[in-house]
Design brief:
This protein is of the alpha/beta class. It has 5 helices and 5 strands, in the order H-E-H-E-H-E-H-E-E-H. It has a single domain, classed as 3-Layer(aba) Sandwich (Rossmann fold), CATH 3.40.50. The longest helix has 12 residues, at 17-28. The protein is globular.
Length: 135
Amino acid sequence: MEQAADVVQVLVVDDQAPFRAAARAVVARVQGFELVAEATSGEEAVEVVDRIRPAVVLMDINMGAMDGLEATRIITTAHPETLVILVSTYTADDMPPAARSCGAAAYVNKDELSPRVVRHLWEAGGDPAWPGRRA
């Protein structure tokens, strides 16, 4: 049972089922990581994090009423130990300005999300070059 405590619990948040499936597959390939929940909105993500406290959240930016940036702001304020990685289709130049100040630890383009990237960001505590990253 001690090994279960070493498992990195991950929440995937995206309003598009195909990307949730892709992210599920990525997380499944990272040794020591476990997908513990999925959410389809910012509101649901906040509720899930409050309830189960995952270590990592892979957060889409563009969703319904509460986008991923607002959800990230709420989550990282209430749970600063949670590592939120924004995952979207933006290029660095086209990203909303609030993405850099919402408390996320990193940004990954959806096309670049891989087990290696997830593992690296977890081990590094995020992207050291990401502006607005909380230490």
